[in-house]
Design brief:
With 216 residues, this protein is α/β, with parallel strands linked by helices. It has a single domain, classed as Flavodoxin domain (Rossmann fold). It has six helices and five strands, in the order E-H-E-H-E-H-E-H-H-E-H. The chain has a five-stranded parallel beta sheet, with helices on both faces. Helix 3 links the parallel strand 3 and strand 4. 35% of the residues are buried. Bound molecules: flavin mononucleotide (FMN). Flavin mononucleotide (FMN) binds next to helix 1.
């Protein structure tokens, strides 16, 4: 059983990466072989609209672009499950996570020829980390519905999800310009809530691997 982790944050050891790694550890506890990819280490572009993946008579629908993302797309296509982490940037996904999902999903999107060209169901989970608190989320909102919808349509199943709020953004808040943060709530988040998010991520990984195991 293979579970792939995707870190869509430019930072390799901060909030998003930590939670994705925790989820992979949870999956590994259940016997999964795991692999982590850091998207910002790779040289790649989003979909270039070449439509090679939509030509008539293809045996397999895969992205025709060949670049740093190609091995990641191959790994996800061959995996039993994928866990994607992204920081929320301007209410959406990070640019590289967006670009990754364009390239992963579009070859499987059909224009009426069945629901998806993806040859099998690939269970997925999304981990989102963000600066807003859970209470502020209604006001600021995040624009992830389109990916939730396309994940179900293309990969064949509703994704599992984990939200980590009010994240610790930099090591030392005294060195950065900010007026709006409640430092007491940030401290509580870092010392008490984030460890729970990490446990929830581990549990998510265990849950995903458990589902895969029971379907094999
Ligand atoms: C370019 C940029 C845009 C951001 N936009 C938002 C936003 O719209 N909403 C939000 O809650 N946090 C926003 N943040 C904060 C990050 O989502 C948050 O700090 C996240 O946990 C960072 O993930 P990382 O620690 O894994 O890099 C933004 C951060 C950056 C750098």
């Amino acid at each position: 059983m293979k579970v792939i982790g995707i870190n869509g944050s430019p930072r390799r050891n901060w909030n998003t990466a930590t939670l994705v790694k925790d989820a992979l550890e949870g999956a590994a506890e259940m016997g999964a072989e795991t692999e982590l990819y850091n998207l910002y280490d790779l040289d790649f572009k989003g979909c270039t609209s070449c439509f090679s993946c939509k030509r008539i008579g293809l045996e397999e629908h895969r992205c025709a672009m060949r670049d740093g993302l190609t091995p990641v797309l191959d790994a996800v296509t061959g995996a039993d499950a994928v866990i994607v982490g992204s920081p929320i940037y301007f209410n959406g996904l990070s640019a590289m996570t967006d670009a990754f999902l364009e390239r992963l999903f579009f070859p499987y999107v059909t224009y009426g020829n069945g629901p998806t060209f993806c040859p099998r169901v690939i269970p997925s989970a999304f981990i989102y980390t963000m600066n807003v608190t859970e209470e502020q989320l209604d006001h600021y909102g995040i624009d992830i519905n389109r990916f939730r919808r396309f994940t179900k349509r293309v990969l064949g199943r509703q994704p599992d999800e984990l939200y980590s709020y009010n994240t610790w953004q930099y090591q030392d808040y005294d060195r950065y310009e900010h007026q709006i943060f409640d430092m007491e709530s940030k401290r509580i988040q870092r010392e008490q809530v984030f460890p729970k998010d990490r446990e929830a991520a581990r549990e998510l990984g265990r849950r995903m691997a458990g589902q895969v195991e029971s379907s094999l």
